[in-house]
Specification:
Elements (H helix, E strand, L loop, with lengths): L8 H9 L3 H23 L2 H18 L9 H18 L9 H4 L22 H4 L2 H13 L2 H12 L4 H8 L3 H25 L15
Length: 213
């Protein structure tokens, strides 16, 4: 008899459909690090990420029968995770935001080209890039992205998903994915350049959790 450790992800889902809790434990063992890591980058709170991990476990157990095999099980798990994160973000206290076109980087002209210069920070010495203050600023800048753009950036540039896989996870067309990723990168580049040039290297506190409202 094949053990859970030897089963494919798809076979484990079939076992979960039958109520096999040990199969669920094996799926979580394989994916919990990715689920937690993605949740932490999306939410920036360890407790929220832990809660999403539990939410995802419950959803996988309840919805295993909905997996159609059109993509990898990992993509299906990522989609559940992103949806859980977005739901938690939407429940947070609303903050006043500037218009999206201003928030996501430099202005664009009718041809889709950058209409204003963006400071270049790629020449900053390597030891500067490794400073903890800059790392905190990078986290802060990613956290300032609107959730839908943050999800695209984290999946593509942090988790390393292919464009095809990210499209499946987020249910986006390829042009829409590319557009969001492009503007997210521009926004982050501009934020980090402004930060470095101004010398603002102070870490920023976490945003309020749902329970803090």
């Amino acid at each position: 008899m094949t053990s859970n450790q030897e089963m494919s992800d798809t076979d484990l889902l079939r076992q979960i459909q039958k109520g096999n809790e040990s199969a669920l434990e094996e799926i979580l063992r394989r994916f919990q690090a990715k689920i937690y890591g993605l949740s932490l980058r999306m939410l920036r709170h360890s407790q929220d990420a832990e809660e999403v991990l539990q939410d995802v476990a419950l959803t996988v157990f309840q919805k295993a029968g909905t997996f159609k095999g059109e993509a990898a099980v990992s993509s299906w798990v990522y989609r559940i995770t992103v949806n859980a994160c977005l739901m938690k973000i939407r429940r947070r206290p609303k903050v006043q935001s500037i218009p999206l076109e201003e928030e996501l980087g430099p202005a664009m002209n009718e041809e889709g080209m950058i209409a204003e210069p963006v400071a270049d920070w790629t020449s900053i010495p390597r030891d500067e890039l490794e400073r903890k203050e800059l790392a905190a600023r990078i986290e802060e800048a990613v956290g300032e992205l609107p959730p839908e753009y943050r999800a695209v950036f984290v999946l593509r540039d942090v988790e390393g998903l292919s464009a095809e896989a990210a499209c499946h996870v987020l249910n986006l067309s390829l042009p829409a994915l590319k557009s969001r990723l492009h503007r997210a990168r521009l926004f982050l580049r501009k934020k980090l350049a402004d930060c470095l040039l101004a010398g603002h290297m102070v870490p920023v506190a976490d945003p309020p959790r749902e329970s803090d409202a």
